[in-house]
């Protein structure tokens, strides 16, 4: 059985920030017990932008122009993140049709946050996917799939001239 390493009463009375990095806390597993050093919890430093492009400055008018141009230039546009299951759902549903669609994967772009902010201003939500047909926002992955099941998606694509 695993023995529990106890901390002194003095340490237990101190706030969490005061616990030394030399403290030892128990680590329990089904096969063995070992002790690992306790580390301070450090609140992450939040920068205003962006996650890994700290020296990058953005021109918001350029972001708006980019998003608006993509929506106007293409009959079908999907703003997406490659790892998002709802984005995959929307793209898979649209892939059933022989259409030309513009898929913009935003997760690695330095202006991803600003694109989502502008999409929020346009559609009332900043989550992805954001699916546009003929310049009109139709919804995300669930809505696109629902329209497909109801037969409305094909009609929207035909009206837009995408099919």
UniProtKB/TrEMBL annotation:
NCBIfam families per the UniProt record, alphabetical: GRX_euk
Main function: Has a glutathione-disulfide oxidoreductase activity in the presence of NADPH and glutathione reductase. Reduces low molecular weight disulfides and proteins.
Stretches assigned to coiled coil: none
Pfam families found in the cross-reference section: Glutaredoxin
Annotated CDD domains: GRX_GRXh_1_2_like
Name of the molecule in the record: Glutaredoxin-like
UniProt keyword annotation of Transport present: yes
Biological source species: Saccoglossus kowalevskii (Acorn worm)
Keywords: Disulfide bond, Electron transport, Redox-active center, Transport
